[in-house]
């Protein structure tokens, strides 16, 4: 995990900036928008931003008067620059930059330049491992640095991908729902830095690194349209859960943190099942992991490991450093290595546990 905005590392030249941004894993899930265009959520969410040097996006943005048009490459492949969310982020950054041009001599000819964007993830893209969160956080941070924009720009990252606003900060981060119609108060805030809870560890168990069948954007649209459970969740469950979770983080109370993390993941996947037609993100291996974690916790009479799953079958486990060797051994035992690419299983430990093939 990382601290504060320091997790974005700029390498600035006159017209080129490189940043890296880590993924974040929600313990209170965001699922559902009340405003599709502005990407405003139906409930607040809370997440942990992982370590900079593990799962992260790295983006270089360059501006030059020689460039004929804006262009973007993702993992080495040129993509359409016309994607609406990309255009939204570029447009918002340029709008802010224009606003402060009169007070900024450093801005020079930057506003007349086209930009080239080059972004890479060091982990499977679109596999339900928060790749768009890291990607848009990194893009917006790099553009903000390039155009000399200071202050919070999480409301711009949010319009790229909702969960991206939480990757703008390190440590424990919440994304407030906000009340304003223009979405200006739906922003990310750090509630505690990473070193607030140094014993907390995260294991990412990659069950399947392939692209997910139903993307988050489309999936949550259908859920909001068709599920009664999602309305109940947003109105009656998440508000108090968010408070309890914030308190558990501040008090470093792993029992409450772990229990809410697992319950919230389960309820999110229940809303997917309540979607019509239903969406299944978990597969059989995911379910085995859930059973294993509960059996392990029952054996010890307390929560020693907590799972959470995003929009895919890959598990993320939260645990404390003292239990890490045992949990790793458990996973080695029950999920022996396989070389089958579609169902590859390995564990990544964060922040300072090396990647382990099972
Ligand atoms: C399950 O942020 O990817 O990971 O805003 O449509 O881009 P869009 O969705 P996205 O959704 C993430 C959903 C989640 C839960 C979470 O990270 O809170």
From TrEMBL:
Residues 21-188 form the Diphosphomevalonate decarboxylase-like N-terminal domain. Keywords: ATP-binding, Cholesterol biosynthesis, Cholesterol metabolism, Lipid biosynthesis, Lipid metabolism, Lyase, Nucleotide-binding, Steroid biosynthesis, Steroid metabolism, Sterol biosynthesis, Sterol metabolism. GO terms for cellular component: cytosol. Its EC number is 4.1.1.33. It catalyses: (R)-5-diphosphomevalonate + ATP = isopentenyl diphosphate + ADP + phosphate + CO2. Signal peptide: none annotated. It is an enzyme of class 4 (lyase). GO terms for molecular function: ATP binding; diphosphomevalonate decarboxylase activity. Pfam families: MDD_C, MVD-like_N. GO terms for biological process: cholesterol biosynthetic process; isopentenyl diphosphate biosynthetic process, mevalonate pathway. The keyword Nucleotide-binding applies. Pathway: Steroid biosynthesis; cholesterol biosynthesis. Residues 202-358 form the Mvd1 C-terminal domain. Belongs to the diphosphomevalonate decarboxylase family. Catalyzes the ATP dependent decarboxylation of (R)-5-diphosphomevalonate to form isopentenyl diphosphate (IPP). Functions in the mevalonate (MVA) pathway leading to isopentenyl diphosphate (IPP), a key precursor for the biosynthesis of isoprenoids and sterol synthesis. This is Diphosphomevalonate decarboxylase.
């Amino acid at each position: 995990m990382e601290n504060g905005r320091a997790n974005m590392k700029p390498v600035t030249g006159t017209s080129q900036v490189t940043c890296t941004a880590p993924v974040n894993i929600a313990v209170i899930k965001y699922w559902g928008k009340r405003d599709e265009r502005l990407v405003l959520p139906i409930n607040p969410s809370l997440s942990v931003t992982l370590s900079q040097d593990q799962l992260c996006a790295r983006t270089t943005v360059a501006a030059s008067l020689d460039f004929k048009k804006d262009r973007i490459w993702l993992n080495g492949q040129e993509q359409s620059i016309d994607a609406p969310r990309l255009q939204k982020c570029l447009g918002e950054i340029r709008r802010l930059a224009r606003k402060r041009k009169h007070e900024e001599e450093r801005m020079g000819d930057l506003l007349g330049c086209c930009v080239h964007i080059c972004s890479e993830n060091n982990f499977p893209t679109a596999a339900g491992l928060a790749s768009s969160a890291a990607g848009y956080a990194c893009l917006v941070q790099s553009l903000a640095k390039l155009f000399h924009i200071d202050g919070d720009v999480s409301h711009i990252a949010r319009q790229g991908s909702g969960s991206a606003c939480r990757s703008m900060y390190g440590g424990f981060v919440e994304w407030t729902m906000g009340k304003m119609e223009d979405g200006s108060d739906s922003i990310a805030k750090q509630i505690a830095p990473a070193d607030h809870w140094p014993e907390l560890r995260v294991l990412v168990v990659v069950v399947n690194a392939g692209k997910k069948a139903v993307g988050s954007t489309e999936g949550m649209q259908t859920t909001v349209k068709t599920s009664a459970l999602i309305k109940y969740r947003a109105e009656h469950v998440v508000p108090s859960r968010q408070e309890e979770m914030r308190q558990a983080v501040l008090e470093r109370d792993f029992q409450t943190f772990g229990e809410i993390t697992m319950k919230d993941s389960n309820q999110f996947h229940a809303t997917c099942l309540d979607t019509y037609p239903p969406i299944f993100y978990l597969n059989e291996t995911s379910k085995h992991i859930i059973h294993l974690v509960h059996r392990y916790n029952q054996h010890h009479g307390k929560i020693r490991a907590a799972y959470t799953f995003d929009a895919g079958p890959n598990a993320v486990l939260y645990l404390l450093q003292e239990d890490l060797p045992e949990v790793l051994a458990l996973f080695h035992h029950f999920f022996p290595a396989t070389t089958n690419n579609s169902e590859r299983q390995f564990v990544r430990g964060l922040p300072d546990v090396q990647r382990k093939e099972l």
